[in-house]
Design a protein that fits this description.
There is one protein chain. By secondary structure, the protein is α+β, with helices and mostly antiparallel strands. Among the domains are: 175 residues, Four Helix Bundle (Hemerythrin (Met), subunit A); 104 residues, PAS domain (Beta-Lactamase, 2-Layer Sandwich); 137 residues, 2-Layer Sandwich (Heat Shock Protein 90), CATH 3.30.565. Helix content is 68%, strand content 13%. It is built from 15 helices and 10 strands. The strands form 2 sheets. Strands 2-1-5-4-3 form a 5-stranded antiparallel beta sheet. A 5-stranded mixed beta sheet has the order 6-7-8-10-9, covered by helices on one side.
């Protein structure tokens, strides 16, 4: 009997009692939470009503002042139309004022105001009503006179009544508004008290739950654990006897698990004797090699491949005495003529008879090898394509440089050369005896020399501006826009949004200058622009140059194409992109036909480069 009690489970009656009290505690906590939510929601609704009442009561003060102001305006205005408008506003103001006053005393569902039950507020309304009624009667009389007799100027008596009662009304209305505010605060204090009370009840329930539920349960669990420990000691004694019986079984089971692991993880496997003859080969491996059961009488290296060279290599590998696992990737040729790649693991096995055999585990990696070959081919193709693109770009750059040299030579020959020739001929043709002709030729020579100087300045300026190397990109761009504006007659403006002159490395400054120069020249030559704006800014280590023009624009779909030769055009845009790529910059070109073009240049630098250039 005692032994049955000792091994009995936890007391059912105790658990039923604990569960009953636990559910009761949870229900009490849930009830307190529900009650708290009901009180809070009720208070929130009450607060909404209080805010509406306070708002309407405060508005009554403003409307009383509005009534008085509109009545006084009737005495001041002389324009009939304005008087009619004031009378219309006065009627509307009076209607809203009366409706709000009645709602504050007797409730209004549409306005969301409930009937006022506070006796003090009711007494205050009884005191204010005579003044309210006097003001209402005065305004209604003014409106009645206007409606019946067309009299637009209010009688002074009504005005005096309105002014006399307005001040008292405002003071008493302030008192009412303050009273409403006090009542609202009182409601809030009541809610706080109720919430504190509910919190105390919830805490009390938690304390009772600890003493009457969790504490008895912990004692019960402790006794149960004590009983389990005693039972565990007895079971250990029995386990020691049983453990000996299972040791050999566990050893066999472990060997079986290892074998199952090999079988589960390698569907392609075979085992051989030390002489290479097959002991066993998996069905899947046999099917992959294209063999049947009759072929198993031959050595494994002959079964694996039909290629004689591969057979000789596999024979040496399989027959060599090894104590460690050997892994190789081997290409074989099946009986069906297919070439396969196998990842082969050769594992030496020692049996109890000391006769060594070999276990071969294989994985079919043909697909991986094919993918590796494809990747290598694609890599080679990409490399060749990249080199071809680089060669094409290099040839285009050389062609562009040659075209630029031809253009410079043509400008010097057609412009400066012809002017020098004309200058020479005019100097040689001077006849000092004919003073009148001599004077004319001297004036012509002066004009020709001026044009010659201007041409030389333009050519040298386009080649290498001294401002770029001496002072940097900011003054150089300013100088370029100024000179091009004078030479072309176009409105070319420069806007510098930076506070100081910042220097960059010479390579970046030169390439940015050339890109801006090309963009401005394109706007001058091709876009027929009347206005060109070059804006430069430097923020967060990013130099930004924007070139805007109001020209005819172009179809920007050509930007993604590389021109085949200079005769097709577009080489300027190509070289602009190449220059920015060379300095790791960004170039954005946006153009709308008929609306102009915007070219944006962004070049990001670091503080180390800036410090070096500033020094």
């Amino acid at each position: 009997m005692n032994d049955d009690k000792y091994h009995a489970p936890l007391d059912t009656t105790t658990f039923q009692r604990i569960r009953k009290w636990y559910l009761f505690a949870l229900a009490a906590i849930a009830l307190s939470i529900i009650v708290a939510q009901i009180l809070i929601q009720h208070h929130l609704n009450s607060q909404l009503d209080d805010s509406k009442v306070i708002n309407v009561a405060g508005r009554q003060r403003a409307y009383s002042q509005k009534l008085t102001k509109e009545v006084l305006l009737l005495k001041e205005l002389s324009d009939p139309e304005q008087r009619n408008q004031i009378f219309a506003e006065l009627r509307e103001t009076l209607a809203v004022w009366k409706e709000s006053h009645q709602a504050l005393q007797h409730s209004d569902v549409a306005m969301g105001i409930s009937e006022e039950e506070n006796e003090e507020v009711q007494e205050l309304f009884q005191k204010i009503n005579p003044h309210y009624n006097a003001m209402v009667a005065a305004v209604e009389n003014i409106l009645a006179d206007f409606k019946d007799t067309g009299k637009s100027i209010p009688h002074q008596l009504y005005v005096d009544i309105l002014l006399e009662n307005e001040r008292t009304f405002l003071k008493m209305m302030d008192t009412i508004v303050n009273k409403y505010d006090v009542l609202s605060k009182t409601h809030l204090q009541n809610l706080k008290f109720k919430e504190y009370l509910l919190l105390a009840i919830s805490l009390l329930i938690l304390i009772l739950e600890i003493f009457f539920i969790f504490k008895p349960l912990s004692l019960q669990i402790r006794n149960t654990i004590k009983n389990l420990i005693v039972a565990h000691k007895k079971s250990d004694e029995s386990t020691k006897e049983i453990k000996k019986l299972f040791q050999e079984k566990e050893k066999s089971l472990q060997e079986l698990q290892e074998l199952n692991f090999v079988i589960d993880n390698a569907a392609l496997f075979a085992s051989t004797k030390q002489d290479g003859n097959v002991v066993f080969i998996s069905k899947k491996f046999n099917e992959l090699l294209g063999r049947n059961d009759q072929d198993l009488n031959r050595p494994l290296y002959e079964i694996l491949t039909t290629d004689e060279g591969q057979q000789q290599y596999l024979a040496e590998v399989l027959k060599s005495n090894r104590k460690n696992i050997r892994t190789e990737e081997i290409k074989i040729k099946t009986a069906k003529g297919d070439s396969l790649w196998l990842d082969m693991s050769i594992i030496p096995m020692h049996q109890s008879s000391a006769q060594q055999s070999i276990l071969i585990l294989c994985s079919n990696i043909t697909e991986r090898k094919q993918n590796e070959l494809k990747v290598a081919q694609l890599t080679q193709a990409n490399y060749e394509e990249t080199m071809r693109q680089k060669q094409l770009q290099a040839s285009q750059i050389v062609e562009g440089q040659e075209e630029e040299r031809k253009r410079i030579a043509k400008d010097i020959h057609d412009g400066i050369g012809q002017m020098l020739t004309a200058l020479k001929f005019n100097i040689e043709s001077i006849n000092l005896s004919n003073k009148e002709k001599t004077a004319e030729k001297i004036e012509y020579i002066k004009s020709l020399a001026s044009d010659l100087i201007k041409g030389v300045r333009t050519a040298t300026f386009n080649l290498t501006p001294p401002e770029l190397s001496d002072h940097g990109i900011f003054p150089a761009l300013h100088k370029m826009t100024h000179e091009l504006s004078k030479l072309t007659g176009k409105n070319i403006l420069f806007e510098n949004k930076t506070e100081e002159n910042i220097r960059f490395n010479s390579l970046a400054e030169t390439n940015i200058y050339r890109v801006v120069q090309e963009a401005v020249n394109n706007a001058i030559k091709y876009s027929e622009a009347n206005f060109i704006l070059v804006t430069i800014n430097f923020n967060d280590n990013v130099l930004s140059v924007v070139i805007d023009d109001d020209g005819k624009g172009f179809d920007d779909s050509i930007l993604g194409k590389v021109p085949k030769n200079t005769s097709e055009g577009g080489m300027g845009l190509f070289f602009m992109k190449e220059r920015m790529n060379y300095i790791n910059g960004r170039l954005f070109i946006n153009s709308i036909p008929g609306k102009g073009t915007r070219v944006t240049i962004n070049y990001k630098t670091d503080s180390r480069e800036l410090m070096a250039t500033e020094e």
